[in-house]
Design a protein that fits this description.
The complex is a heterodimer of chains A (650) and B (261).
Chain A lengths: L3 E6 L11 H8 L5 E7 L5 H14 L3 E6 L2 H14 L7 E5 L1 H5 L5 H21 L7 E3 L3 E5 L3 H12 L3 E5 L14 E2 L4 E2 H14 L3 E4 L2 E9 L2 E8 L14 H5 L5 E2 L8 E2 L2 E2 L11 E2 L5 H5 L4 H5 L12 E7 L1 E4 L3 E3 L16 E3 H8 L20 E8 L16 H15 L4 E6 L9 H11 L3 E4 L2 E6 L4 E7 L4 E7 L1 E6 L1 E3 L3 H7 L27 E3 L9 H19 L3 E3 L5 E3 L9 H5 L5 E2 L7 E2 L9 H5 L5 E3 L4 H12 L1
Parallel strand pairs in A: 1-2, 1-3, 3-4, 6-7, 6-18, 7-10, 18-29, 20-27, 21-22, 21-27, 22-23
Antiparallel strand pairs in A: 5-30, 8-9, 11-12, 12-17, 13-14, 15-16, 19-28, 24-25, 25-26, 31-34, 32-33
Helix pairs in contact in A: 1-5, 2-3, 5-18, 6-7, 6-15, 11-12, 12-13
Chain B lengths: L1 E5 L9 H14 L2 E4 L21 H12 L4 E3 L2 H16 L1 H10 L11 E3 H9 L1 H7 L8 E4 L9 H4 L9 H8 L3 E2 L18 H17 L4 E4 L2 H11 L5 E3 H9 L6
Parallel strand pairs in B: 1-2, 1-3, 3-4, 5-6, 5-7, 7-8
Helix pairs in contact in B: 1-11, 5-6, 6-8, 9-10
The chains are: A alpha/beta (650), B alpha/beta (261).
Chain lengths: 650, 261
């Protein structure tokens, strides 16, 4: 005979406020097999856990039901408590009477009824539970970092410093990311390159860090502790070992009109190029779509001038396969396309810039050597207008519903940079709201408005018209309630940011999920902010959500700490809730293998399907697919689930 | 293909060209415009008051009639098109409005399912600009033509579903199909001030002037429009420098639809 203890939590007033917990205790105590039932204000507190432990010893409980919050919250807590008292942790079940009951129902009577039903279902399941024992798996003590921006660099450096090998995979020819393009950084105005490039050099020179630039993730297999990742190293057409980075090749390259990605298209680059002077590695790459040699077969000037003979037109993509124990996804962001924002005349006037383009213009190493000029005529502008929230907080389908978070601050920064260089230039900012939470952030914005005399106008711009020597702006000043018809010489748009184009596919390869905006989803928005839903895969930087540099670095270090915590372990406990085949029922039809997202099912040795417990994640897809009912999931057997349903429907 | 056709009052009086040229071109292009029986003025202004139902009834009657014939409904005048599109959208979404209309006349059991098309949309979506191009007899080679959209065809973008309200291209594509050179200019989707042309004539003149100036700056030597009110307002200001006429005139010219000018 089972002896089950039921523990009903009040969660302060979270549950008790809407559920009559005393009635739940009363009613559940009459259910078959329930030896005792109690309630307590905070079951997760030490005193509550002690109640569970003592009851197991005192009453000799064979199973435990905790009616409390979601199992995602405290299942592990209660299982550990039971284990300390000598009960197998898989004999503990959670009845979620908070998220799925008290929080979503207003009427106490029906909420109480539902709470009882949920508790009864959990009791019914415990009746059919069997003790389960986790297995062990090994840990490959190496980490993979996808993305070589500041997030990836920081995470890699932290992991490498702890003594583990790290591989960075970056899709562009150099590490550095967006931060390398920026001029100054808010709120301290230190030079972006001056604080970033030393980190890039550190990463390149670190014994524990291997960098694969111009490379992409090709294929991912395995699971936490044991990922096997294929990396495609795209043909650079330049031998990394021979190249000295002298620059003779691109000085001679006849193709000079390819818009420079690094300079946001403000100037051109050659077909063989390094993206910027401080690139790491300082080895050029041939852009084969624009190279004359690859288009027509003639040319080859770069090979002629290359002293060390590093140019290799026959180089092929190379796929390398490596093993890793943990992964950090730091895939970064892009700005949205402005094709659907015709009102800002971005495509109609070279004097309408995005903020990232302006970063390159105001940068001393940029295409204008830091001079701020109108791209149309090269004249210095007398008036510059910023437009914020271009595509951010936009509920139409052309923009993004979320706040891009960084724009208010970089707009204030860019306004200050202009005023610093040219105090006589009129600078105004159109905004919806100015949002500056962050250490020393609001003070910074107020300095722009109060000390530097940047005019902040609350309102959105309706139309920008390029009339040649100037730009007309139609707008509304919402505070004064007046229509504005003004002229300006240059416009800078705070364009919304979105996850980089590869974020979704990359996340998919690691079985990690993305949200409706394709930002990678963290395992818990508050308590597990740098973990993905896939064990061993961690998140850092703007791929997870818009954030500025300080936050990105903090998140990258946090992800690195999680990776280190994983890699120091020699063995990992595996989840015993895996699928298993009933060999008497299985007819080897092969359907389960097709649906398994983890490649855990094989048919090799026997005439039935067999599950690799190390790969199986317990998703249950094979169980519902199996036409002969041969598949079952430990811990969630068909009998257990049906018993729960029966108990609810009673 | 046969469409229900709603000409509207202006096309029977001041804007006869718009109507005649459209019918003549339709004949060449192989579709038929079947005029709706006993139509009334659509009101020309979409009533913004949600409880103002009476002024929506003429449009609802017409839409219902087209629906019963299983035909899409075609309009030409921008103001009419605007009213029909928005009233149709109201009828599709608003259950209360549908009930009020039925209470008024139980015959009017209509749920907004009739497709409303502007003549230009018929050319683009049904005839196809490729086919149109193939039927051109007198290509408008070398003519620099600015399209004046005005405000009524484009906004609100979600309901009108005509083209990108900030950067429309359908009229430009039309001009290209006829062999002309389209001249996009910034003010092509701005209001001409038509609605205030009586009350604030001077302001309306300024607004129309901006449109003309913007088009001329980009090198347009003639303008086309679908809107009688825009045509009235802009041509008053144009004084012959940059002539403005209905888009259907270009169509009969290019198709050689048998009308002499």
């Amino acid at each position: 005979m089972e002896k089950i203890g039921v523990f009903v939590c009040h969660c302060g007033s979270n549950i008790k406020g809407n559920v009559d917990t005393a009635a739940v205790v009363e009613q559940i105590s009459h259910v078959d097999g329930v030896a005792m039932a109690v309630e307590y204000p905070y079951m997760c507190a030490e005193a509550g856990q002690a109640m569970i432990r003592n009851a197991i010893t005192e009453h000799g409980l064979t199973g435990v039901v905790v009616a409390a919050c979601s199992p995602r919250m405290h299942e592990a807590t209660f299982r550990k408590a039971a284990e300390r008292a000598g009960l197998n942790s898989y004999m503990v079940e959670i009845a979620n009477i908070r998220e799925q009951c008290s929080w979503v129902h207003r009427d106490t009577v029906s909420a109480t009824k539902k709470a009882v039903a949920l508790a009864r279902a959990a009791v019914a399941k415990v009746h059919r539970n069997t003790p389960l024992h986790p297995g062990e798996s090994s840990v490959t003590k190496r980490a993979l970092v996808v993305g070589g921006g500041i997030a990836g660099i920081q995470a890699a450096l932290d992991i490498a410093e702890a003594g583990f090998e790290v591989t960075i995979v970056e899709t562009t020819p150099s590490i550095g990311g967006k931060m390398a393009q920026l001029d100054k950084t808010f709120p301290t105005l230190d030079c972006s390159a001056c604080i970033l490039t030393p980190k890039m050099v550190d990463a390149a020179g670190h014994d524990n860090i291997a960098i694969h630039t111009y490379s992409e993730i090709e294929k991912v297999e395995g699971f936490v502790g044991n990922f096997t990742v294929s990396i495609r190293k795209k043909a650079r057409s330049v031998d990394m070992d021979k190249c000295t980075g002298c620059g003779d090749c691109w000085a001679k390259c006849p193709v000079k009109r390819v818009p420079s990605e690094f300079d946001s298209g403000l100037c051109n680059r050659t077909a063989i190029y390094t993206p910027f002077a401080q690139a790491v590695p300082n080895v050029p790459v041939i852009d084969r779509t624009n190279c004359v040699k690859f288009k027509t077969g003639r040319c080859g000037l770069c090979r002629t001038v290359c002293q060390p003979g590093a140019i290799d037109f026959d180089q092929q993509d190379e796929i390398i396969t490596e093993n890793f124990g943990a992964v950090v996804l730091a895939t970064g962001y892009d700005t949205i396309s402005l094709d659907k924002f015709g009102e800002y005349a971005y495509h109609d006037s070279p004097d309408v810039l995005t903020a990232l383009e302006f970063e390159r213009m105001t940068n001393a190493a940029g295409p204008t050597d830091g001079r701020i000029v109108r791209m149309s005529d090269g004249h210095k502008p007398k008036s510059i207008t910023f437009i914020q929230c271009v595509g951010s907080r936009d509920i139409t389908n052309r923009g993004k519903t979320y706040c891009s978070k960084i724009c208010c601050m970089y707009t204030a920064k860019q306004a200050i940079l202009i005023k610093d260089k040219y105090p006589d230039v009129d600078v105004q900012v159109f905004y919806i709201d100015v949002r500056t939470p962050g250490k020393n952030f609001d003070e910074f914005y107020r300095r722009a408005a109060e000390e530097y005399g940047v005019k902040y106008i609350k309102g959105q711009v309706g139309k920008v018209v390029n009339v040649g020597d100037t730009l007309h702006i139609q707008a509304v000043d919402m505070l004064e309630g007046r229509h504005m018809d003004i002229q300006t010489d240059m416009i800078i748009l705070a364009t919304a940011i979105q996850p980089s184009a590869t974020a979704k596919t990359t996340a998919g390869m690691f079985s990690s999920s993305v949200d409706q905006n394709h930002f990678m989803t963290e395992a818990h928005p508050k308590l597990r902010p740098v973990e993905s839903h896939t064990a061993g895969v961690f998140l850092a930087g703007c791929g997870q959500g818009p954030k500025d540099i300080p936050e990105t670095v903090a998140q990258a270090s946090a992800a690195a700490a999680k990776v280190i915590g994983l890699l120091v372990k020699d063995k990992l406990m595996t989840n015993p809730c895996t699928a298993a085949t009933d060999e008497d029922l299985c007819n080897n039809c092969g359907l389960c293998g097709n649906v398994c997202p983890y490649g855990a099912i094989t048919y090799e040795s026997k005439l039935t399907a067999s599950v690799n417990n190390a790969l199986c994640q317990g998703c249950g897809a094979c169980v519902v697919t199996c036409p002969s009912g041969a598949m079952d999931l430990h811990g969630f057997t068909n009998r257990q689930l049906m018993a729960e349903v029966d108990a609810i429907c009673k | 293909m046969t469409y229900s056709y709603y000409p509207g009052c202006t096309l029977k009086t001041k804007a006869k060209d718009l109507d005649h040229f459209a019918r003549a071109s339709a004949a060449v292009l192989g579709f038929t415009l079947e005029e709706i029986d006993e139509w009334q003025c659509c009101g020309a202004v979409y009533p913004l008051g949600t409880d103002e139902v009476v002024s929506k009834l003429p449009a609802i009657r017409v839409l219902h009639q087209a629906g019963q014939k299983n035909q899409a409904m075609v309009t030409l005048c921008s103001a009419c098109h605007h009213v029909f599109k928005r009233v149709n959208d109201d009828m599709r979404r608003d259950v209360d409005l549908r009930r009020t209309v039925r209470n008024y006349d139980k015959e009017l059991d209509y749920d907004g399912t009739t497709e409303v098309l502007h003549y230009m949309e018929v050319l683009q979506r049904h005839v196809g600009f490729g086919v149109l191009k193939a039927k051109v007899q007198n290509p408008l080679t070398g003519r620099k033509i600015g399209a004046y959209y005005g405000c009524m065809l484009l906004r609100p973008g979600g309901v009108m579903d005509f083209d990108d309200p900030e950067n429309p291209t359908i009229f430009e594509d039309f001009i290209t199909a006829l062999g002309g050179t389209p001249v996009p200019y910034p003010y092509r989707n701005e209001c001409c001030g038509g609605y205030i042309s009586l009350k604030e004539a001077e302001k309306a003149g300024q607004m129309a002037g901006k449109v003309l100036e913007s088009a001329a700056n980009r090198g347009a030597t003639e303008l086309i429009t679908a809107c009688p009110l825009c045509l009235y307002n802009v041509s008053k200001k144009a004084a012959g420098d940059v002539p403005i006429y209905y888009f259907t005139r270009l169509l009969v010219e290019a198709l050689d639809a048998g009308i002499d000018f």
